[in-house]
Amino acid sequence: MLNDRYKARAKAHLGEALRWNAETEIEFGEGIVAGLGFVGPIILAAMLGNLSLGLAASAGSLPIAPQAAGRGAGEQARGIAPALLPTIGAAGLAVALTDAGWAGRILVVLLAVGAAIVGGYSRTAAIVTTRFTLFLIITLSLAATMSHRLLLMLLLTGGAVWTALLWLLFGMFARTMRGSQVVEEVRPSSTRAEKFARWSASIRQFSGLQYALKLAFCLAAAALIDIAYPGHHLHWISLTVVLLAQRRTDLMPVKITQRALGAALGGIVAGLGVAAHPPVGLLIAGIGLIAGTRPLLKMRHYLSYSAMMTTLIVLMMDFEQPLEASVLVERTIATLIGGGLVIVANLAGERIATRLARQQP
After folding, report:
1. Which pTM value belongs to this model?
2. By CB neighbour count within 10 A (0-12 exposed, 13-18 middle, 19+ buried), where does 97 fall?
3. Residue % of the chain over a pLDDT of 90
4. Burial class (CB in 10 A: 0-12, 13-18, 19+), 49
5. Residue 24 to residue 40: CA distance in whole angstroms
6. Closest to 234 (Cα-Cα) out of 326, 107, 349
7. What is the rounded CA–CA span in Å between residue 261 and residue 270?
8. Pick from 26, 16, 8: nearest CA to 296
9. What percent of the chain has pLDDT over 70?
10. At a CB cut-off of 8 Å and minimum separation 6, what does 275 contact?
């Protein structure tokens, strides 16, 4: 009876993870802009005979999310700035901390924890700080493979600015074409004082700090493992942790399953792509197609979106590097370790929250 109940729950959980959401409408133009944001720097670098620089620059496009089409230039700029500025800041910090040893590792954990705490202020803050932490970890991995760190920062900044400009132009074009048909949604929001009061109250409780503590435990453990076994591509543990960890306190939310399966699938697909080493034209077309489907898949099939994101990240980091079977094995092990750390942190957080709840009068 108990086994049947668990089987039914597991089946429902997996079904929800694989479900395709056809309710959300997606602008076709968003896919075009998302694809151009990635392949623009790659095409330019390929024409100049240095593909690796283009792949590095395209990474700057990752945190720049699609903007709602049809808004004014000012509103578009206000929407892009919270993504662009943390991207540039994360790139600079990562480049500075790459060779900082133990102190750098500790500071990265502290930056991630601080970002997680600040992210509790509002939904926008949560999105921005999560992107900051993810891009910080990605840039640290990229910086470890490049000798010219300042050049990497400039490339990432250029890629981010290029993508931001594309979204601005797309928004202005859409507004011009639609004219008065554009309807702006007005959503009631809390005042800054109300948000600050709610945030300051939340960080005095375990529930408000749980996500930050989860990241602290997982990233610290990932850093220790990476230091203990250098040269084994275990930096992927930190990336897996940032991808899988969520603010929600569910022990096994659907999104963790989607991200874990997507990360594993994307790693395999990217590994095969790196091993095949396709012609530059085919590589650019593939990256453009993958990047162009991101806005659609993020809203309709998050598992596939996670797989596409992982594929892009691996291609940007490893396409110009020699690929060995051991690299794929080590990255798979690192993914499993990262996922295991997040599950352990979820379990520990749930137990602590339950114990604290019982102690309350």
Report:
1. 0.82
2. buried
3. 16
4. exposed
5. 28
6. 326
7. 14
8. 26
9. 87
10. 323
Residue found under tokens 């300042």: 150
- Provide the token pair at 204: 């005095």
Indicate the residue type of 163. Answer: T
